[in-house]
């Protein structure tokens, strides 16, 4: 069990917002950072800071060891075959854009298909939209069920021999849906396509094994998994990454530079032009240590339990619409409170010290599918507990009463 | 933080009973504006003749602040000269920065001054006014 004392590891949680203890329920947007991560970044800057892969001096070696050490941790964390398959990026968006802009044009041509869903975050939708436009390929959508899940039989129909790329989120940032990525990978591979998995919302919350999923690319963000902002990664199968051209050219990524021709470093560095996000990687390494000390299975169990409790408590509020499947496995709950606009809900909740997200969650096509302009979203992490959900429910009832009175 | 500073009675009245909500059938000047960070959208239509805003209507989706602000804005600028309308827009921006301003015969708008204390909501309140500015801009370019 996750002990309630875990909250003490997160300094930010120990504060009042508008006179109330902070209840942070916006974890799908970004997570808070434990002292261990903050200290690792601080210590790096206070003792080890130097540029990597070039200095002969001691600090240069320490910085390189810390940076490459973080890569090893991440490779093990998602069970990549080797560190050559882990490219550090700014986050999921950059990782997905590398695949779309480098791998994409090498395999997608006119008449080919790229398959996604209407539930994708803009970062796993627009790069494919752009690729389809540039190459003359068709962008196809696997239809969604009313609860936001997809059926494999629909995936079978949508993915054809013309399909070159299937791109899908493992876990939706809005609907709390976990997609059958392993099965989708098998379908894609049967048709000679590759699968790109947006792991921004899955990696922080559940055990991920890229070899077991057999995905070809997997993108993730550090800041959603207790690490600093500005660090993320792209996992790719070595053979695919080796065949790809770099996206950014400059220092750090070269082997030999001539006046008219240059050659690239080997994997993974050929994709890491410029001075990398060293402190961010150090923070990510510390975050992985923290998560593994608790155990991803334990975190997942904790959040599934919270999600069940939240579904139950929220459904008691009359007039509240819950979106997404029941008995969800992940702690992402999207809802609307009758006629009260999500912004107004979020403002009243903020006055009670409760942080939730209101808006379209970078999923405008999904909002249109839901036939709403925006929604409110509460999302949980390992430090949240049932009493915070009780506070959320009480504040929502208060919101309803406030606006029922104001709106007469 | 006092919610009543934000949700004043007059604001809720404009939200509940919007003025000038709808659209003109003819091809009056039309401005569509989104707030990409939150999903609010407004379609504003203006009828400008001889340098005077003869009529204004809006439609759209958004929170109580953005929609009530649109309702007030259309009511405030109707019958005003283009310059007066732009002055109102300027006043509104100043009010969002916390300055005390006088809207003369149209006091309702001053109820939105409380938005200043809720920085995340300022963009909601200014959406309709940005649409007005854009509309007048287009109108003047056409001349």
UniProtKB/TrEMBL annotation, chain A:
Domain annotation Aminotransferase class V: ranges: 23-392
Gene Ontology biological process terms in this record: cysteine metabolic process
GO MF term list: cysteine desulfurase activity; pyridoxal phosphate binding
A UniProt-annotated Pfam family: Aminotran_5
Keywords: Pyridoxal phosphate, Transferase
Catalytic activity: (sulfur carrier)-H + L-cysteine = (sulfur carrier)-SH + L-alanine
PROSITE patterns: AA_TRANSFER_CLASS_5
SUPFAM superfamilies cross-referenced by the UniProt entry: PLP-dependent transferases
EC primary class: transferase
Highest taxon, organism lineage: Bacteria
CDD domains: SufS_like (cd06453)
Enzyme Commission designation: 2.8.1.7
InterPro entries linked: Aminotrans_V_dom, Aminotrans_V_PyrdxlP_BS, Cys_dSase_SufS, Cysteine_dSase, PyrdxlP-dep_Trfase, PyrdxlP-dep_Trfase_major, PyrdxlP-dep_Trfase_small
Gene3D superfamilies: Aspartate Aminotransferase, domain 1, Type I PLP-dependent aspartate aminotransferase-like (Major domain)
Required co-factors: pyridoxal 5'-phosphate
NCBIfam families registered for this protein in UniProt: sufS
Family stated for the protein in its record: Belongs to the class-V pyridoxal-phosphate-dependent aminotransferase family. Csd subfamily.
Reported function: Catalyzes the removal of elemental sulfur and selenium atoms from L-cysteine, L-cystine, L-selenocysteine, and L-selenocystine to produce L-alanine.
Name recorded for this polypeptide: Cysteine desulfurase
Gene source species: Paenibacillus monticola
Encoding gene per record: sufS
UniProtKB/TrEMBL annotation, chain B:
MF terms (GO), sorted A to Z: iron ion binding; iron-sulfur cluster binding
Annotated family: Belongs to the NifU family.
GO terms, biological process: iron-sulfur cluster assembly
Protein name: SUF system NifU family Fe-S cluster assembly protein
Domain of life of the source: Bacteria
NCBIfam families, sorted: SUF_scaf_2 (TIGR01994)
Domain NIF system FeS cluster assembly NifU N-terminal: 7-124
Organism: Paenibacillus monticola
Short name of any one Pfam family annotated for the protein: NifU_N
InterPro entries assigned: NIF_FeS_clus_asmbl_NifU_N
């Amino acid at each position: 069990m996750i002990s309630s004392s875990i909250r003490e590891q997160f300094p930010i949680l120990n504060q009042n917002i508008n006179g109330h203890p902070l209840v942070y329920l916006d974890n799908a947007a970004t997570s808070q950072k434990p002292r261990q991560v903050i200290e690792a970044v601080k210590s790096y800057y206070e003792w080890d800071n130097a540029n990597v892969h070039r200095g002969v001096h001691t600090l240069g070696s320490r910085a390189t060891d810390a940076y490459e050490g973080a890569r090893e941790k991440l490779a093990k964390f998602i069970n990549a075959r080797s560190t050559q398959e882990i490219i550090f990026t700014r986050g999921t968006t950059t990782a997905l854009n590398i695949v779309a802009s480098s791998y994409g044009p090498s395999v997608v041509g006119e008449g080919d298909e790229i398959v996604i869903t209407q539930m994708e975050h803009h970062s796993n939708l627009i790069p494919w939209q752009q690729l389809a436009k540039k190459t003359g390929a068709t962008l196809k959508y696997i239809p969604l069920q009313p609860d936001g899940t997809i059926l494999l039989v629909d995936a079978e129909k949508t993915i054809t021999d013309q399909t070159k790329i299937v791109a899908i989120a493992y876990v939706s940032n809005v609907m709390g849906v976990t997609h059958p990525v392993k099965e989708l990978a098998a379908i894609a591979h049967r048709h000679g396509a590759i699968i790109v998995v947006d792991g921004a919302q899955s990696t922080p919350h559940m055990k991920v094994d890229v070899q077991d999923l057999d995905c070809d690319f997997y993108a993730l963000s550090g800041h959603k998994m207790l690490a600093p902002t500005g660090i993320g990664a792209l996992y790719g199968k070595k053979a695919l990454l080796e065949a790809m051209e770099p996206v950014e050219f400059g220092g750090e990524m070269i082997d030999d530079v001539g006046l008219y021709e240059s050659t690239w470093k080997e994997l993974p560095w050929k994709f890491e032009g410029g001075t990398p996000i060293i402190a961010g990687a150090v923070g990510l390494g510390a975050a992985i240590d923290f998560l593994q000390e608790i155990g991803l299975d334990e975190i997942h169990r904790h959040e599934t339990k919270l999600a069940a409790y939240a579904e139950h408590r929220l459904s008691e509020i009359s007039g509240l619409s819950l979106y997404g499947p029941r008995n969800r496995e992940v702690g992402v709950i999207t809802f609307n409170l009758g006629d009260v606009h999500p912004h107004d809900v979020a403002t009243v909740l903020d006055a009670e010290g409760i942080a939730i997200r209101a808006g379209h969650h970078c999923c405008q096509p999904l909002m249109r599918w839901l036939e709403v302009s925006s929604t409110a979203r509460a999302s949980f992490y390992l430090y949240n507990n049932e009493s915070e959900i009780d506070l959320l429910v009480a504040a929502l009832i208060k919101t309803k009463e406030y606006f029922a009175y104001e709106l007469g | 933080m006092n919610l009543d500073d934000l949700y004043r009675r007059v604001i809720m009245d404009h939200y509940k009973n919007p003025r000038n909500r709808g659209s003109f059938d003819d091809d009056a000047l039309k401005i569509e504006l989104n707030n990409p960070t939150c999903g609010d959208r407004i379609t504003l239509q203006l009828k400008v003749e001889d340098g005077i805003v003869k009529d204004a209507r809006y439609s759209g989706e958004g929170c109580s602040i953005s929609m009530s602000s649109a309702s007030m804005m259309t009511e405030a600028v109707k019958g005003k000269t283009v310059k007066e309308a732009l002055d109102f827009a300027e006043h509104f921006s100043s009010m969002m920065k916390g300055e005390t301003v006088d809207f003369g015969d149209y006091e309702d708008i001053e109820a939105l001054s409380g938005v200043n204390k809720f920085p995340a909501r300022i963009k909601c309140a200014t959406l309709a006014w940005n649409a007005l500015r854009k509309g007048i801009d287009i109108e003047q370019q056409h001349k």
